[in-house]
Amino acid sequence: MGTTTPPRTLAEALRARGDESLAGLLRARPDLLNPVPNDITQLATRAGTRASVVRALEHLDRFALQTAEALAVAPDPAPYDTLLSLLTGDGLDDGEQRDDVGAAITAALPGALATLREQALVWGEDDRLRLVRTARELLAPSPQHPSPTGLGPTVAEATAGMSPGRLQEILAETGLPATHDPVSAVAALSALFTDRTRMAELLDTAPVEALSVLDRLVWGPPYGEVTPNPTPPVKWLRDRGLLLPVSTRTVVLPREAALHLRAGRAHRVPEPVPPVVAAAAERDPQAVDRAAAGQAFMALSTVEELLKLWDGGGPTILRAGGLSVRELKRAAAALDVTEPVAAFWIELAYGAGLLASDGETDERYAPTPASDEWLDLSAKDRWTHLATAWLAATRTPGLVGGQDAKGRALSALGPELDRSAAPDVRRRVLALFAELPPGTAPEAETLLRRLRWERPLRGSAPTAEGSDLRSRLALWTINEAELLGITGRGALAAHTRALLDEGEDTAAALLSPLLPEPLDHVLLQADLTAVAPGPLERPLADMLSVLADVESKGGATVYRFTPGSVRRALDAGQAASDLHAFLAAHSRTPVPQPLSYLIDDVARRHGHLRIGAASAYVRCDDEAVLNEILADRRSTGLRLRRLAPTVLAAQADPGSLLEALRDMGYAPAAESAEGDVLITRAGARRTPPRTPPVPVPEGPPTPDDTLLGAAVRAIRAGDTAATVARKEPPEGATGSAPSGTLPRTTPAETLATVQAAAMTGSTVWIGYVNADGAASQRVIAPVRVEGGFVTAYDHTADEVRTYPLHRITGVAELAEEGEG
Q1: 370, CA 20 to 30 Å: which among 238, 280, 481, 749?
Q2: What does the DSSP assignment read for 18-61?
Q3: How many CB atoms lie within 10 A of CB 666?
Q4: Are strands 641-644 and 616-619 parallel, antiparallel or unpaired?
Q5: Phi and psi for 411 in degrees, rounded to 5?
Q6: What is the pTM of this model?
Q7: Predicted local confidence at residue 142, as pLDDT
């Protein structure tokens, strides 16, 4: 009386937890909530399934995992002191285990155990710690799956099935007293290997070569191959049980002997403290912010240029999905970047919902309607939109150019680029950046070591893409963050800190003063160029991109006017007078005379030739021009013939005819069937409304507090229904049921019992089968019974429900307190 009984099972340990502790378990392991367990017993069972335990182990840090690995090779159950000794050693290893490491382990172990307990991987009091069986099976040694600690099986496990005669031979060689009881023989051999003094005396008699064999096996793997006629050193070890047979050709170093050679340590290098992220450089925080803002502006310009590049309809989509290598090279050349960087910008625009497939028969990529809305935003809001899309995206541009598991090339915008770990890695990398003082750039190698310590099992196994995917994601994150303006000169920018901690509005407010204001003017020069000394307002930039070609980019953009660019503006419906007025209104310098002459000259010749559909035809009032075209050898492929003095017909479509005559130096214009000049405007092609690609989740989403509270109440209520004491029915009644099964009563007995419970306000236990045939047990307090239905407060669901009487399999009264 008055003492707490230690839990005998994981279910009992979970049942003894408070609601907040259960909510912590469900928050740490959200896969346990799908669906919500009926009771504590089902929760414990689900927490011990292989898939769930593997997922939980993958989210442990290095020291918590080392603690679990030590428990896997410790006796079951293990006292706290035994676990601590496995991690620190016995202190008799000639100073190899430093005092500071031992102190760090002693300080960190309670926290690691608390993590394992919270995640239901370890249960029991400190004097009887138990690792859940599935985790022990995953982490304990076997010939097929060696332990991560490098330890082999115990003497008892390795000698199971060994003949008594062979055990007697080993005892004789080690000087132990003979015994005919195999259990006593194994216990004596185990005691020898765990006795520091006697074990040292035995090893003092070993040949030097035998000690060399032990040195190769002591830190794992503990298995070795032997020949039918082993060498003398191996025979000496085998005769004394220091190598025990696993098969005819395989021997193993038993765990007790290995722990003696390791000075009691389960791990060669325990890591109780996370590695420190070192600083590579310290810079002026304001310089960092300015550099990041400049790169953010370049990011916006690059994405805008990409949208403009594919404005009239982008490249076609491969049959297997994605962008061809040739189209990626084209985009890289147009953006003046490398192909991997071009893949990043394309994937970023796609992930932000600015690019998508148009869904047509000849499917192509094109800007979405959302891209027009994005372009209308201010620069700061455009950047926050891109940054938040990048943080959440599971699309991984760094994989482009590699191969999948089947050896197929991975293409930009292809279907195989999602990696569910990417968002977690990005946010963790930026969080490590944020832990450093402002303006400090971290050293990449120490950052990677920290990430490996935090998730030693996640993404560390070799794959078809290469080893340690998590580290590769981290390196890609560092590069992409610099491109996007998340970081500047290798350090985290202030607006990014605000984005991570306070949200988009604060980040945009910090970034806005650092971005250049759009200009409403350019500087026209006599060499047929225009210099934009900064970003231009969108209407001016759009018009100038039609009227001139971009010659160079940078702090100032240089545009060049050519006959082709002027003709492009005339094709878009502008008249020569409109172009003169536009340049005069937006130039801070006088309009150079050569530029005015260029516009007038192109405008005078523009539309002099008319192209229409016959198959196609050429119409011109000047017969001499048509004669000149017919005489030109370059027109041979067009198969022109004269239909009238001012009309030529061609065996080519109007578009090809337009391009061919322009290549010959003419300035033809297309015309409609009515003879009017056709005006072509850029940017007319858009996809139907598209939503951005949904990130592929790494696992079940983390539940919110409301869901956790409801789940804990439901589990508690279900546990009450499953464990509540029930009255035994009278002898001969039909309601008796074995523990854990649904009660069975006749319809008449069911009706009488629930009516009596409704009259007295008592609570009963029922079995219920729903419309889908799923059976469950519930504890209800009937309120009303009429029309073949019972309305009751359901303690299991924590709400009032109505149940058809014909679906109730049976009913039993609950025992009063003190009964049963």
Answers
A1: 481
A2: -HHHHHHHHHH-GGGGSS--SSHHHHHHHHTSHHHHHHHHHTS-
A3: 18
A4: unpaired
A5: -110, 155
A6: 0.77
A7: 64
